[in-house]
Amino acid sequence: DAGVTQSPTHLIKTRGQQVTLRCSPKSGHDTVSWYQQALGQGPQFIFQYYEEEERQRGNFPDRFSGHQFPNYSSELNVNALLLGDSALYLCASSLATGASRQPQHFGDGTRLSIL
Amino acid sequence: KQEVTQIPAALSVPEGENLVLNCSFTDSAIYNLQWFRQDPGKGLTSLLLIQSSQREQTSGRLNASLDKSSGRSTLYIAASQPGDSATYLCAVYFSSGSARQLTFGSGTQLTVLP
Hints:
The structure holds two protein chains of two kinds.
Chain A: E1 5-7, E2 10-13, E3 19-24, E4 31-37, E5 44-50, E6 53-57, E7 64-68, E8 74-78, E9 87-94, E10 105-106, E11 110-114
Chain B: E1 4-7, E2 10-14, E3 19-25, E4 30-38, E5 44-51, E6 56-59, E7 62-67, E8 72-77, E9 86-94, E10 102-104, E11 108-113
Parallel strand pairs in B: 2-11
Antiparallel strand pairs in B: 1-3, 3-8, 4-5, 4-9, 6-7, 7-8, 9-10, 9-11
């Protein structure tokens, strides 16, 4: 049973560029959440997708956008990259039904470095 | 504002010692609390999930407790081993408002010395 998978593992971009990160949820899960983790900090919630719609959003600018596909996989897009966007981007999946009683499962993350 | 705090930020102990990691949160209205382990440069591994109606959960050498009224949780690690060295993160799923995300503390970086 595959867990949450993310690609790519590492990515290097320059300021002003755009990036797309990908996530496949754990088998049977239908909800995907994205988090940003800066070095030495805890993860910060970016947004959550369910039924191909953004359901909840954290305190992140519109440069951060996402998408969920019919197979529940998801993409995170970041435009006009800034040095401060350098971080580990984590994807978590869960099942919407009974979400408050279940653990969230995390992938290994994508390490994004902005030069 | 709903916040999660973990103290200390770093902890170093000799192998074999029992230890306690602390987590505090600002709002007692929670669905659950989850403890994670994170190795350097890696993702999060779920260790224990405590529902709001529970007082503790155990898995092997790990025991997590929850006191909603005081807004505190502890993670107890028995007979620590060098392989336990990692960052431990506490995350709370608050139930008030429309929040549907985990709120994390900044973690405690644990080093177990051989």
